[in-house]
Design a protein that fits this description.
single chain; 80 residues; alpha+beta; 3-stranded antiparallel beta sheet; two-stranded antiparallel ribbon; 1 helix; 5 strands
Length: 80
């Protein structure tokens, strides 16, 4: 089952940074998905915010995938 959201944004919280077991420093990136307006008759229920924390490497991988999908979507749209 899929849940659809109205907004998505990223945040860096300095409070979440720290050292890993190997001594490496990491500053996680939080990806937050929210619904804009609770219960506005959109045919679905409002959902509380959902948060996913990514390492910088995971965030880069996601960003690369999103850019590739955006390019593909542009190409599909240009053919119609």
């Amino acid at each position: 089952m899929s849940d659809y959201r109205d907004n998505i944004h990223g945040r860096i919280d300095p409070e979440q940074s720290g050292h890993l077991a190997d001594g490496a420093w990491v500053q996680p990136i939080s990806v937050i998905m929210t619904d804009r307006y609770p219960f506005q008759g959109r045919g679905r229920c409002w959902l509380p915010p959902s948060v996913c924390t990514l390492t910088p490497g995971e965030a880069r991988e996601l960003a690369t995938s999103l850019l590739e999908l955006a390019d593909q979507a542009d190409r599909i749209g240009a053919r119609r």
